[in-house]
């Protein structure tokens, strides 16, 4: 197991891609702290990990609130004494709204979670990692941060900002042995996506996957496996980079 003895925090770690990442890191030997606003899914994911023989902790957290992020770090250190990996996955994703009718409130909420939340979590965790002389911070971006999506200016702005935030953090944290990288998923099958697809015809499904050269949606574990790699010693010389997991979507 590549992460045996490690402790990982996964924000938004109890749903969709985040849950897949939490489960994969636990299977790689890491103890996992799940930061999630929803207690039900958070506790369910902890139970899932424990049933598989792993160790996990749920800490209810809104990453856009600094006091809650500080509590997350404190509870992690109290329970596990260290933090080796931070996966910044929490994000507002279902937020399509035309630019001309986008409200200041909706704009700010997406900025607060998708960008400021990454800053809060990364800064708080990095201060601990510096004392240990090592660490991994992995930011979950999106192809929406690399190419524009219609009616998603707030989402694209935050995911585009995450690209440069990753690079700038990597530059500042390199002297302390902390590696900062990003993963940019494309269309990934989650429970939310499956629900949306239930009413689709075969033709509509083909339209949805038509621009993906591999001809299908990705699976959650296909993202989680990249995160596990970046969290491991195998990625010890990978710094400030991005890995796109999109089935070739950006090629079209």
What does this structure look like?
The chain is α/β, with parallel strands linked by helices and 252 residues long. 46% of the residues lie in helices and 17% in strands. The protein has helices at residues 16-27, 39-51, 66-80, 104-132, 153-173, 191-197, 202-209, 220-231, and strands at 7-11, 31-36, 56-60, 85-88, 135-140, 178-185, 188-189, 218-219, 242-245. The strands form 2 sheets. It has a 7-stranded parallel β-sheet with strand order 3-2-1-4-5-6-9, sandwiched between helices. A two-stranded parallel sheet has the order 7-8. The longest helix has 29 residues, at 104-132.
Key terms:
single chain; 252 residues; Rossmann fold; seven-stranded parallel sheet; two-stranded parallel ribbon
Mean pLDDT: 95
Superfamily at the CATH H level? NAD(P)-binding Rossmann-like Domain
Main sheet specs:
7 strands, parallel
Total beta strand runs: 9
Integer count of domains? 1
Strand order of the largest sheet: 3-2-1-4-5-6-9
Shape: globular
- CATH class, named Alpha Beta
Radius of gyration (Å): 18 Å
Secondary-structure content class: alpha/beta
Unreliable segments (pLDDT under 50, ≥5 consecutive)?
none
Gap between N and C termini, in Å? 37 Å
Number of helices: 8
CATH topology (level 3) name = Rossmann fold
What series of H and E elements makes up the topology? EHEHEHEHEHEEHHEHE
Q: What portion of the residues fall into strands of 2 or more residues?
A: 15-25%
Percentage of helical residues? 40-55%
CATH architecture label: 3-Layer(aba) Sandwich
């Amino acid at each position: 197991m590549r992460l045996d003895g490690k402790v990982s925090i996964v924000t938004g770690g109890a749903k969709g891609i985040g849950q897949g990442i939490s489960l994969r890191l636990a299977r790689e030997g890491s103890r996992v702290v799940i930061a999630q606003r929803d207690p039900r899914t958070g506790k369910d994911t902890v139970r899932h990990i424990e049933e598989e023989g792993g160790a996990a902790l749920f800490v209810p957290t809104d990453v856009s609130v600094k006091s809650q992020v500080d509590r997350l770090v404190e509870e992690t250190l109290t329970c596990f004494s260290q933090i080796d990996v931070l996966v910044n996955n929490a994000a507002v994703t279902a937020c399509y709204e035309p630019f001309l009718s986008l409200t200041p409130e909706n704009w700010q909420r997406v900025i607060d979670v998708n960008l400021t939340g990454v800053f809060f979590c990364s800064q708080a965790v990095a201060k601990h990692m510096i004392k240990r002389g090592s660490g991994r911070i992995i930011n979950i971006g999106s192809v929406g941060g690399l190419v524009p999506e219609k009616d998603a200016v707030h989402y694209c702005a935050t995911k585009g900002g995450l690209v440069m935030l990753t690079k700038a953090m990597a530059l500042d944290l390199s002297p302390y042995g902390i590696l900062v990288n990003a993963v940019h998923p494309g269309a990934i099958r989650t429970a939310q996506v499956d629900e949306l697809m239930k009413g689709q015809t075969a033709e509509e499904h083909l339209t949805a996957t038509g621009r993906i050269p591999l001809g299908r949606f990705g699976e959650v574990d296909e993202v989680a496996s990249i995160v596990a790699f970046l969290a491991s010693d195998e990625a010890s010389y990978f710094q400030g980079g991005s890995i796109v997991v999109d089935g070739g979507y950006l090629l079209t």
